[in-house]
Amino acid sequence: xxxxxxxxxxxxxxxxxxxxxxxxxxxxxxxxxxxxxxxxxxxxxxxxxxxxxxxxxxxxxxxxxxxxxxxxxxxxxxxxxxxxxxxxxxxxxxxxxxxxxxxxxxxxxxxxxxxxxxxxxxxxxxxxx
Length: 129
Known about the structure:
Blueprint: E1 2-5, E2 26-31, E3 39-45, E4 48-54, E5 60-64, E6 79-83, E7 86-90, E8 97-99, E9 115-116, E10 118-121, E11 124-128
C-alpha cells in the first residue's frame, strides 16, 4: 500500500514526538489501524517518499524512504529491530542500521537518513514533513 497525504493537519503539542533531522507542516497520513505492527508502508507527502512504521507498542516512526547507500526507495521494506533502547530499521538491501527516531546510522560510519516527527491524534497518524 502507498499512502498519499497532501493536506497539512492542524498543529498540536509535540512533547512525545521523536527527534528529527527534518520537520515541516503536519500531514494526516492514515489511520493507525491501517498500519501493521513491525511493518513499514510508503507514504507520499508533498512529492517526498517517506517510510512509516508502527511498532508493536503502537509507537509510530517515519524516515526517508530513500536508502542512502543505494539511492533506491526501499526503506519501508526494511527490517524493524532495536539496539538497546533504540528502535531501528535495517536497509533491506545491504542491512545498514539506522535509528528510527533520529535517522543516525548505527552500524558504522556513513550517511544518516532523514527522520520525521510523528504523532497519533484521534487514531490518525500525522507526520511533520
